[in-house]
Each structure stands twice: as structure tokens, then as C-alpha cells.
């Protein structure tokens, strides 16, 4: 605003008029509130304490108008003061658009009633111009206040989000985790899948933008945290294989070069620590599989994880592969063990077992049905061999 212009206009307002404005400030604020209630249905629905907060802002604005007329160089401080006097959560229940609607309603009241308080006719024109200038300053102050509140809220949300992701990785108690996630807008019952990999840079805002933009394209809610050089992303939504894989592939683009591991989908955020634990274990072990796909499922890294000493991977291999073969009868376990030991040559396996090659084929098909692993596939053969080894170790320790 041009302070000199305001000063020249302010000099044209007499002391008598200024005193009249001071005396009328309370009535003007009340009239403004009445106009807001009449013109804005949403304002009428606000609780009494929130309407009182708006009244406080309006009263401060009116009284500051008189002070501004006397000293226009204080324009910025006085217009911002009205919003500093308001409760800190004002911007949470009154949006910027609604605040500007309130300012318009107050302007109309000021334009109609303030000029009537002028002692002389020429003061009325000056007051009308000054009202428009002052309310413009009020509008700018409101925008500045909301921008500052949004920036502070964004910083707080980022810290809270980092706490939630850290809690998932650590396996914090369910109550504290869910309450913090709910504050960020996460649906408590939403399924959750964890991805881990290397952060693409040391610029957190850039990382957040990259992850969120890709999550938006995938239509998935996300929580993310940067832990040193590691990026942890939790995404929600349906867990059917195709949809989850597509979402994970899109989000992988936000990671730096190198492996990205996807944990198993958890039924809710309170169970997501299991997904995080498997993904972290996979990230430590994936170096043993140089040609692993990107992203790679933690479940597909069970052999490497088991060799790295992950007891959960050992348990999954034994329970998912060895025990079903044991329960199905000794012939299947013996057949797949012999087949793998003889390098996957079916005829040699049949001779070793004194059975027809077709019998071996049938048994290997049954192995694939029970375990989801095809012995003739090189990768699945590795999984089966490691699983059988883990099964022998577990049996030696009396675990089954």
C-alpha cells in the first residue's frame, strides 16, 4: 500500500470523526457479525465459541482501522495483528475462501455505516476510499496468515508421518500408531504394503513430491519416511496380485537405482510391521541375487534371507514347502530331493528311485501343486533346495 497516500487521506479525517469511529467500533463489529449470519448459512452453523473467535478478529480489525488512520505506516503490523489475536486453530475450521467471504460481508457494513460517522461531507469520500484500502490489507493479511498456517501444518504432518513410518518399522503398539495415522487421513481398516529401497536424493521435499505424485497416479494413499539413505513407503488399497504389483511398480520409480523390496500385504496398518520386517530383511539379503527383478517380493527372496540368518524366512520355507511335502507322504519329499541332487535329470532320478519316469513326472507335478514351486525351474529349484536344507536343520533341532 502507498503509505503517503494514506497519510494524506488520514490528515483529512478530523479528530471528531476519529473519536466517533472509536466509539462506534463495537457496534460496527456486531453489525458485521449480524451481516455474516444473514448472508452466510455456513457461518450460522458454527458453534458459539467459533463465532466468538470471528467476532474477536472483527473487533480487532475495526479498532485497528482507527489506529491505521492515525498512523498508516503501521498498516502491515495492524492488519496482521487481527489474525494473530485469533485462536491458532481458526484456519482449521474456517477456510481461506470462507474468510474472504467474511471480509466481504464486513466491507459492506463498513461502506454503509462508516461514512455516516463523518463530521463533514468531504470526509465521507475519503473514508470510503480508505475503507477499501484497509480491507485490501486485511485480505492480504488473511492470505499470509493462512499460508503460514499451511506451511506449519505441512511441517508438522511431515514429522508426524515420519513417526508413523518409524513406528511401523519398529512394531510400535497399535493404539499410538493408528491414532497418529488417523490424524494424517489414513483409513484404519485399509490394507498396507511396505516398500523399501534407497532414497533418490538428500532433498526430502523432492522425495515427498516424487512419491506422492506417483501414488496419486496409482490411486493409492501413501505414508513415507526417509531413514538415512533408506526410503520406506507404505501404500494402501486392494491387495490382489495385479493391482498391488502395478502400484508397487509405479512407486518404485520414485526410488534411486538399486533394488526395491516389497513386503507382503498386511490386513491393516496395525499389522504392517510384519510387511516392513520382511521387506527390510529382503533388502539386506537381495545382494545375493544380482539379477533380482525390480521391485522384488520379499517372499521371492526367502532363500537369500534364510542364508542371511532370518528366522522368519526359515520358518516360511519349512512351513510352506517342507511340511506340506511331509504331510503328503515320503515319496514326494524323496523324489524332489533326489531330482535336485541329480541335477534335474528326470531319467536319472527315475533310475535312482527304481520307478518309471512318468511316475517321477507325476510326483514333481504334485510337488508344484503343493508348494507353488516347479522343480524344473532354476529359481524354484534353488528355493526348494534351500527349503529342504532348512527342513533338515529344523528337524535336527527337534522343531518338527
From TrEMBL:
UniProt cross-references to Gene3D superfamilies, sorted A to Z? PucR C-terminal helix-turn-helix domain
Domain CdaR GGDEF-like as annotated: residue spans: 171-284
| Start and end residues of each PucR C-terminal helix-turn-helix domain | 332-389
Which molecular-function annotations from GO does this UniProt entry contain? DNA binding
Could you list this entry's UniProt keywords, alphabetically sorted: DNA-binding
InterPro entries, A to Z: CdaR-like_regulators, CdaR_GGDEF, PucR_C-HTH_dom, PucR_C-HTH_sf
Give the source's domain of life in one word.
Bacteria
State a single Pfam family of this protein. HTH_30
Transport keyword on record: no
- Secretion signal: which residues? none
- Which family is this sequence assigned to? Belongs to the CdaR family.
**Under which name does UniProt file this protein?**
DNA-binding PucR family transcriptional regulator
Q: What organism is listed for this UniProt entry?
A: Saccharopolyspora gloriosae
Amino acid at each position: 500500500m502507498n503509505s503517503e497516500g494514506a497519510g494524506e487521506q488520514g490528515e483529512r479525517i478530523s479528530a471528531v470523526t476519529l473519536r466517533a469511529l472509536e466509539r462506534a467500533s463495537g457496534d460496527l463489529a456486531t453489525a458485521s457479525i449480524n451481516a455474516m449470519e444473514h448472508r452466510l448459512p455456513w457461518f450460522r452453523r458454527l458453534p458459539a465459541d467459533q463465532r466468538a473467535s470471528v467476532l474477536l478478529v472483527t473487533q480487532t480489525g475495526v479498532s485497528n482501522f482507527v489506529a491505521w488512520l492515525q498512523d498508516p505506516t503501521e498498516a502491515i503490523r495492524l492488519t496482521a495483528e487481527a489474525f494473530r489475536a485469533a485462536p491458532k486453530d481458526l484456519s482449521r475450521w474456517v477456510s481461506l475462501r470462507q474468510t474472504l467471504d467474511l471480509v466481504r460481508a464486513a466491507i459492506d457494513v463498513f461502506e454503509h455505516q462508516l461514512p455516516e460517522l463523518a463530521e463533514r461531507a468531504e470526509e465521507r469520500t475519503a473514508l470510503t476510499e480508505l475503507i477499501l484500502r484497509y480491507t485490501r490489507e486485511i485480505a492480504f493479511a488473511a492470505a499470509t496468515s493462512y499460508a503460514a498456517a499451511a506451511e506449519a501444518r505441512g511441517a508438522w504432518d511431515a514429522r508426524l508421518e515420519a513417526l508413523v513410518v518409524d513406528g511401523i518399522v519398529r512394531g510400535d503398539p497399535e493404539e499410538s500408531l493408528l491414532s497418529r495415522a488417523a490424524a494424517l487421513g489414513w483409513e484404519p481398516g485399509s490394507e498396507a504394503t511396505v516398500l523399501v529401497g534407497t532414497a533418490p536424493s538428500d532433498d526430502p521435499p523432492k522425495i515427498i513430491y516424487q512419491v506422492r505424485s506417483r501414488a496419486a497416479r496409482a490411486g493409492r494413499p501413501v505414508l513415507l519416511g526417509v531413514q538415512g539413505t533408506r526410503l520406506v513407503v507404505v501404500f494402501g488399497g486392494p491387495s490382489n496380485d495385479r493391482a498391488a504389483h502395478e502400484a508397487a511398480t509405479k512407486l518404485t520409480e520414485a526410488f534411486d537405482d538399486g533394488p526395491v523390496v516389497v513386503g507382503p500385504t498386511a490386513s491393516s496398518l496395525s499389522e504392517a510391521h510384519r510387511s516392513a520386517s520382511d521387506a527390510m530383511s529382503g533388502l539386506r539379503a537381495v545382494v545375493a541375487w544380482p539379477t533380482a527383478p525390480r521391485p522384488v517380493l520379499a517372499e521371492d527372496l526367502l532363500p537369500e534371507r534364510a542364508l542371511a540368518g532370518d528366522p522368519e524366512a526359515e520358518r516360511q520355507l519349512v512351513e510352506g514347502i517342507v511340511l506340506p511335502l511331509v504331510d503328503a507322504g515320503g515319496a514326494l519329499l524323496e523324489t524332489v530331493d533326489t531330482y535336485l541332487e541329480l541335477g534335474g535329470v528326470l531319467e536319472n532320478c527315475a533310475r535312482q528311485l527304481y520307478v518309471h519316469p512318468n511316475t517321477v513326472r507325476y510326483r514333481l507335478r504334485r510337488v508344484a501343486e503343493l508348494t507353488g514351486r516347479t522343480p524344473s525351474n532354476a529359481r524354484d529349484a534353488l528355493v526348494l533346495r534351500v527349503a529342504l536344507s532348512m527342513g533338515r536343520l529344523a528337524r535336527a533341532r527337534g522343531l518338527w
